Fold this protein.
Amino acid sequence: MMKIERAFVNPTRTQIALVLLISNLTRRLRYHRFINDINLKGDELVLDFGSGWGDNTRYISDALDKGGRVIALDISSKWQDIIRKRLRGRKNIEYVSSDVRTAGLPDSSFDVIVIHYVLHEVPIEDRQPTVKELASKLKPGGFIHMREPTKKGHGMPIEEVRSLMSQVDLKESLKAEKKANFQVRYKRCG
C-alpha cells in the first residue's frame, strides 16, 4: 500500500470537520465547474481516483443521468465511510476502498478518470506505477481529467505530470494553467 500523509489515510475528527467545512464553503466554485468541464454525456463509466469526502463524486453522479456510473476509489476506509454517508441513496455510485493497483478494476473499462488534487499526494516512488495502472483502466479514446496544485511544498510541477503521462502514451489536451494549479486532460489514443 502507498505511504500517504496520515491525514488522507487516517484523518482525525478535527481534520475531517475542517475538510468538510471548507468543502461546504467552496464546493460550487471548486468542484462543480471542474466536473462541468468534462462535458459528460450521462452514460459514461467514470473513476473518481482519490474520491475523499465525495464532492467530485457528487457532481459526477449528478451528471451521469443517462445510466452512467461512477466508481469512488479511495485508499482510506475512513473517507470511504464518510462518502457513503454523505452520498447515501445514490444508485449510480460504487465505493471501493483500495489502492488502484490492487483494486481489481477491469482494464480498458473507463471512459473518464477524474484526478483532483490527488496525484501530488502519492509518494514519488509510487507515482509512475500508479499512473501506469490508471492508464491501463482507460478505454481507447478515454481520458484522464485532472487538476493539481503547483505550489512549492504542496503540489507538483506540470512538467512532472507531463513526463508521467507521456511514459504511458497519454496525449495532453485542454490545458489551463494558473498561478496555484493547473487543469489538464490526457487522452488514450488507439
